Amino acid sequence: MLEAARRDPALRTARSDGQHSFAETYRQYYPRLFAYIYARVGNTHQSEDIVSDVFERVYLKLDSLRNRDALATWLFTIARNAIVSHVRKHRRETLVDHDVMSELSPATDSVESEVMHREDLAGIARAVRTFSRREQDIISLKFDAELANAQIGQIMGLTEQNVRVIIFRTIRKLRKIMAAERTA
């Protein structure tokens, strides 16, 4: 435990009492949590609301965390459950926030290339939505939340090897879909 606290400043500060420790945890995990939730929800305002709910739950339950080494896993498990709850409530609302997508994309030289880039992003988003919920969650945890395969495995109840295989197969499937779209 002491070694883990030395490696991860959020664990070190979350271990101490007071507002400062929670604030440090918030600052460290907010960007990754938001990226993960946004990738699943597709709307900036709803994502911010869900992130707020997640951190509220974390703040209220931080003392119940038995293993501080699993802070990131615990945070993203709470986020995953919040997303599932949100999706159940808002099933029919599937929007892509183009403003945020354009901020994530690199600057383009022309209007044509920007339009093509937006179409590519929309195609990727459409393709990913056709995957199983498990594949979507794993891809989002890997690329949006930037979690390690071992952490994803803990959140999803899978082995690290299984996560690696699912990521490989899902990316291969995504490449096939995108190649088919380009030739069509």
Describe this structure in words.
This protein has 184 residues and is an all-alpha fold. The chain has a domain of 95 residues: RNA polymerase sigma factor, region 2, helix turn helix motif (Rna Polymerase Sigma Factor, Chain: A). Helix content is 78%, strand content 0%. The chain has 10 helices and no strands. α3 runs antiparallel to α4, α4 crosses α5 and α8 packs across α10. The termini are far apart. The N terminus is likely disordered.
Please give the alpha-carbon distance between the first and last residues. 54 Å
In the CATH hierarchy, what is the class of the domain at 1-95? Mainly Alpha
Described by strand count, sense and barrel closure, the largest sheet is: none
Number of helices: 10
Question: What is the gyration radius calculated from CA atoms?
Answer: 18 Å
Proportion of beta-strand residues: under 5%
Question: SSE string, helix = H, strand = E?
Answer: HHHHHHHHHH
